[in-house]
């Protein structure tokens, strides 16, 4: 849930080009304190470059960024203790255990060993404290990387595709960690190309492609604005196509070898008619998602 407060980040018309490639092309947005803000888009959309400019890792060609009231470029030593950064590619010290890895990062900020133990528990690695980093699973390494970004208790946390390459179970375990981070009052800026998890986790999202923001709002508002139909799926043979066409609220009916698909913008009467006929077993209802919003905005297939 978004918390009341001022703007933690203000991005104004930033641009970054590499030769003829416009990696970031006039991006503007704000992130409120305590907000979980997602930057969504396919690979090559400009998400990581945008994040690196905000973090002060890369200089914009033009435009401005205010991070906690300061410009992050040139690099500000005063900002470093207040931000946590988890990059796409994490590098750890060789032959160190999870606890030793985190303790090394913590020592850079003068953080006590007690905090290290607490952080390992928060990310679900308390029982892996004595396990070497190279013996951890992919999901556990990602959680350790996030712990390293959080160990000094920063005000703003940047996470660049933290669930990339994780299996479904590891992704969902990490969602719990991210929710716990926000519950501690942190501002989270998060990039991903997984639209389903952004719809669940984020207070607001910006959808990017070709270096520009195509749309920005809460996930629910973006989906509502699409005005997309609802699709109701039944097992084939449950009802005849012509029979379903007569239901109130049905816009279209199609059938393939496996299922019958009803398209409607008034699902309530259609579902009521199906319930009266006892056809709810195995029924599936699909409403619009952020992926549908993306397809509507770009007019082409979403690239993972």
TrEMBL record:
<dbReference type="InterPro" id="IPR017871">
    <property type="entry name" value="ABC_transporter-like_CS"/>
</dbReference>
<feature type="domain" description="ABC transporter">
    <location>
        <begin position="9"/>
        <end position="235"/>
    </location>
</feature>
<keyword id="KW-0046">Antibiotic resistance</keyword>
<dbReference type="InterPro" id="IPR003593">
    <property type="entry name" value="AAA+_ATPase"/>
</dbReference>
<protein>
    <submittedName>
        <fullName>ABC transporter ATP-binding protein</fullName>
    </submittedName>
</protein>
<dbReference type="Pfam" id="PF00005">
    <property type="entry name" value="ABC_tran"/>
</dbReference>
<dbReference type="GO" id="GO:0005524">
    <property type="term" value="F:ATP binding"/>
</dbReference>
<dbReference type="InterPro" id="IPR003439">
    <property type="entry name" value="ABC_transporter-like_ATP-bd"/>
</dbReference>
<keyword id="KW-0067">ATP-binding</keyword>
<dbReference type="InterPro" id="IPR050763">
    <property type="entry name" value="ABC_transporter_ATP-binding"/>
</dbReference>
<keyword id="KW-0813">Transport</keyword>
<keyword id="KW-0547">Nucleotide-binding</keyword>
<comment type="similarity">
    <text>Belongs to the ABC transporter superfamily.</text>
</comment>
<dbReference type="InterPro" id="IPR027417">
    <property type="entry name" value="P-loop_NTPase"/>
</dbReference>
